[in-house]
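User: Hey, my collaborator sent me this sequence without any context and asked if I could get a structure. I don't really work with proteins. Can you help?
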Amino acid sequence: MNKHSFFILPLAAAALASCSSLPSSSSSGKSISSETKSSSIAQSSSSTEVSSSSTKNSSSSKEASSSSSVSSNSSSNSSSSVDVSDLKWITPTGAPTLAFYDQGSNTANWTSSSSPTTGVVPAFGTSDYDMIVFDGTSGLGVIAKNSYNYQLAQWISGGNFYVVSTKHTSISEFQAGQTIDGFVKTGNASKSFLKLSKDIWKWDYSDTEIAFEDGVAQVKTNLTANPSGHDYYIIAQPVLAAAKKALASQTPAVTLNVVANLQSEWKKAYNQATIPAAALFVNKSSYEKKKDKIDAFMAITQSRQDDAVNAIDKVTSALNAYGDDTAVTARFGFTSALVSALQPTNQFGILKSGDITDKKAFANDFQTTLGASAFADSLFL
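Assistant: No problem. I've predicted the 3D structure and written it out in structure-token form, which is a compact way to encode the shape of the chain:
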């Protein structure tokens, strides 16, 4: 197999698994100081410096508003009556940005970054943001490791991870010597794959037969550039849909087979609803000072999550109003067309009201199934 050289920031890069997005050179609503650094962001590695760089949005068909208002037509009267216009938050681009589908022009308050390891993780070590969206279990690990001033407040999405192949059609076709291309070894896509493939599917492969890219976008690049380069690829929506389309348009057309849905395989093996993905973390100091505002913000966010599952036309209309495909992809990490195609069956994995009744259990059931220790209660709001 071809060898790859990677500079992977363990654990921190997990957002590229659960918050996967289409490749984008610019996706942030505002820039973050390139001097910001985070330390000791991995649970199992020594301190690793990361510089934060988050670029501004590429131009869209309409000029982004500098308004700092946060609004949602779907929010409750009690929530919308609270002024949350001074709250600031940062997210990776990708699936969880559906929870902010009508906030594209709100560049004064919302920063979205296509580079979670350098654009989002360093924010945990600062007080620049009232809220951070990041891979839930990885974020908990980062906070616990470094005693950062944030707590997990709300889940936004579950897993959207798949094993695909242009050569094989089922799990049972695996043979010794076959190779796998995945992304972010410490992310939940890779963690769930490694657990299932070894313990349940009984795949026997060596460490040299599985590669881990810096993010899911690189998996798509490898897959579309050389469809037969590996036997299997670990990928996530909405990147999977984009890869299928790109391969189908090649000459000759290439068929991409979904070999395994990791969510359904995980549920079947371990009786857990899904694999945890993105969560909303709240700055504890901000919450002490702005409890009513942050509570209202979380209610509005949950309302948008419900829209992302139950009112898809409303979501796509807001995305289209923000700008063209280039602008929407830069800001959110996907196009409105992908939302229309995937969300009727909620392939982004957005969690609606009532899906998660115990936020701590959701994290700890997954964590302990992997053989790790449960997260402390103090890490949750």
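In plain terms: Residues 161-270 form a domain with the D-Maltodextrin-Binding Protein; domain 2 fold (CATH 3.40.190.10). You can pass these tokens on to your collaborator as they are.
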